[in-house]
Amino acid sequence: MTAHPVTSTPTPMANRGGSGLALGRLARRPETGSFLGMVAVFLFFAIFGGSGFLSAAGTASWLSIASEIGIIALPIGLLMIAGELDISVGAVIPAASLTAAILSGYYGLPDWLGIAAALGLGLAIGLINGVFVTRTTIPSLIITIGTMFGTMGLTLGLTVMIAGSTGVSLVPDELTKMLLGQYLGGMFQVTILWWLVYIAALLWLLHISPVGNWIYALGGDKESARNAGIPTKRLTIGLFMLSGFSAAFVGVSQVMVYQSAQVLAGQSFIFNSIMCVVIGGVLLTGGFGSVVGIVFGTITFSIVNQGIYFTSIDPNMGSVIIGALLLIAVLTNDTFRQLALSYSSKKA
User: Does residue 347 fall inside a structural domain?
Assistant: First the structure.
């Protein structure tokens, strides 16, 4: 007699159990809620916005906005995961724009010098924010509100004193325009490519490099993170500098695209970037969130912001929809956080 080997195959019940575990793990990820929201919003405007929303021009309208907000929302999201907040970005954007415009447009210096000075200004403001946050007990919200108003006042005063007006024009050279100010295909801002670079870099930083674990630990319990040997002060300062640099980068790209810088430009970025981050699944209390979720949140916000113009809905209702999205996102984020915590406790 020939013995036949006995093989065991997974039963349908086992497969269903494995699928259930996979779905359970997926449901506990911070970006799951934001992804579902993004899909729902896209389908809504695809149906009611007609062919205009789905056209190349329609896609460019929300994607270009998403790229500018997204470049700021990503570092703001990392700061919020670390338990901090930066409001000063709304003042850094026009300050950087006007720095580049005054140096390269008003005084006629090379574009690269104006850009370098603008980015350096963003880093300096981020450094000031980080130092004050780490060396005092004042909340970062209050500190960055202070630097925001201080930067706004200096920007207005110096611009009027130097240029005699609140706006300065700048016509970039061909290389600068190609890198920062051109429209790909005549419709898509080149900042979309820079946004993709940001996404890749911060995906690596938060989810692959050891620094990512430090950021989560900092947002979870700052004292425990410090006791574990994490350089909490340097990390916090670095995150604020990244935020300042990113806001300055957007300011520089705007002046290259629109060939003009205004003192009051960039104010909407303060709350728009925070809304993108919250819609993307990042908790206001810190310690929970992801880069992918922030990207989904940014896309969702931008689709609502622009998609409403392709429908018969009153554009004035856009703020109502965004406000409702924000409230739903906060409730959803808390639910997913509770699921994640319960899953962690069961594993333990």
Answer: no
Domain ranges, residue 322: 32-335
Token pair for residue 206? Answer: 């938060």
Which residues lie below 8 Å from residue 5, measured CB to CB, with a gap of 6+? none
CATH of the domain at 58: 1.10.3470
Rounded to 5, what percent of the chain is helix, strand, coil? 75, 5, 20
Residues 300, 302, 305, 307, CA torsion sign: negative
Residue 348 lies in a domain: no
Q: Over its length of 348 residues, how does the chain's per-residue pLDDT go in tens digits?
A: 444 444 444 444 344 445 545 555 665 677 787 888 888 889 988 998 888 899 999 999 999 999 999 999 999 999 999 999 999 999 999 999 999 999 999 999 999 999 999 999 999 999 999 999 999 999 999 999 999 999 999 999 999 999 999 999 999 998 998 999 888 888 889 999 999 999 999 999 999 999 999 999 999 888 899 999 999 999 999 999 999 999 999 999 999 999 999 998 888 898 899 999 998 988 888 888 899 999 999 999 999 888 888 888 887 777 787 788 777 777 776 676 676 656 555 555
Instruction: Report the domain count for the chain.
Output: 1
Q: Find the helix packing angle between 191-207 and 210-220, rounded to 10°.
A: 80
- The tokens for 335 are 């639910």
Q: Please, are residues 96 and 262 in contact by the beta-carbon 8 Å criterion?
A: no
Q: Which amino acid is at 226?
A: R
d(CA 159, CA 96): 12
| pTM of the predicted structure, to 2 decimals | 0.87
**The two structure tokens encoding residue 120:** 């350096």
Angle of CA points 126, 93, 80, to nearest 5°: 50
Classify residue 145: in a domain, yes or no: yes
Residue 327: inside a domain: yes
